[in-house]
């Protein structure tokens, strides 16, 4: 009997976790993972892995590698435009690019997993046969020829602007829930003052700049810009088209000469080759699958950075989908995956403070910034005074319960 051929479009966190557990479960699965970026291209922000996602990562037996890649960031400080700081808090961080590399290599170690970088899906059509297939056209960067291949199942793990979703389900405005915010992140050359704490500064008109160390011996610092304002046509248009040069120029116009580290950050942003910018939106779909194609991670639900749940859901969702496909490698798996996970995802998508959290943490006026900083300082002092030492990396904490059905984990992989 031929193997079940599964295509995973996207080699990010969710795509690689899915590929790993599918391969671990059975050699009867043949998994192809497509990724439009280069194999060694590291993008993304700092992140924490907490429960219940941490349990999934532990099952991959990669914790020792991840411990070695911790950024070592010791705390978080809010500073003003003259770099006076307030309120350290603890943090244990990984860089997203480091995590995705470890996950990719763990999955790629299986003989039945094949990663194909710098490759994109050009079209996707499901056949009408009784035991149908998904016919996919794939093109490798720099090549004119397009290959046509058939798969039994396809999973789109290709992010908020998922091409898989657009090809299979269309593109409805009703599925996008903008939060009135824009984010950009990129790397800049590290300076001695960047270590060991991450530092952030508010500017009026809802602008926020954040610098985070990526490691004591790293040569780079991770930079983030957040702007909470819909009335910026140049930035909106640049993000809509994906034109990086225009994105950078629009952000330079917004953040240049603000004070603190703005001059340095903007100068280096204009040179950065790992720059990413987009409007922050949530994705809310009526269903996560259609026929033999399912969506995973941000392609299906995109909770946004303001919830703090994006990476957790990517890992948990991949585990659940792999588990269900291992039990029934038909479209029934997609139905059960969504039934188990949807309520939990919708809970995690809720923006804290009744949805007002983004506006409160990125104030508009000098008074608002002063009030936020004052409250933050008091809270940081109180936490430092009363809170026990934060658990070491790898222990995690449970914010929202979810049954991973780990009791059914067998030596093979995911159990039946």
UniProtKB/TrEMBL annotation:
The keyword Oxidoreductase applies. InterPro entries: FAD-bd (IPR002938), FAD/NAD-bd_sf (IPR036188), FAD_aromatic-hydroxylase (IPR051704). Signal peptide: none annotated. It comes from the Eukaryota. It holds the Pfam family FAD_binding_3. Keywords: FAD, Flavoprotein, Oxidoreductase. GO terms for molecular function: FAD binding; oxidoreductase activity. Transmembrane segments: none annotated. Residues 4-350 form the FAD-binding domain. The keyword Flavoprotein applies. This is FAD-binding domain-containing protein. It comes from Lithohypha guttulata.
